[in-house]
Amino acid sequence: MTQSQMTPAPTQQMQECIEACMSCHSMCEETMSSCMQKGGGQQQMQIMRALLDCTEMTRMCADMMMRRSPMSAEMCMLCAKVCDMCAEACMSMPDDQQMMRCAEACRRCAQTCRAMAGAGM
User: Fold this and answer.
1) Nearest CA to 80 among 50, 113, 54?
2) How many other C-beta atoms can be found within 10 angstroms of the C-beta atom of residue 95?
3) Residue-wise pLDDT tens digits, 22-35
4) pLDDT tens-digit series, residues 80-90
5) Domains of the chain: total
């Protein structure tokens, strides 16, 4: 039995969600690096916690979809919530272009994850 016979190819919707998760993961990592270079106070620390949560969740969500975990739908729903929280945190610094790009990546990921969760995989 070949690998393709054991595991069906990902649907277009799943592939888009995996890509959105990985793109969001990368953007949050870049944004965290930018935050660390700037330093900052309590607000910056709250944003960094949100970014860290989002990087971990998006990576795990993509991994679970790729291996067809039976928990993927639930993970996608949780990932959408974490991405929404991260987008809100980034939006608290509207003058920072990196934060705005990150918020956009988080919103796109949340949207695709909600769609995947609704699809029932």
Assistant:
1) 113
2) 6
3) 999 999 999 999 88
4) 999 999 999 99
5) 1
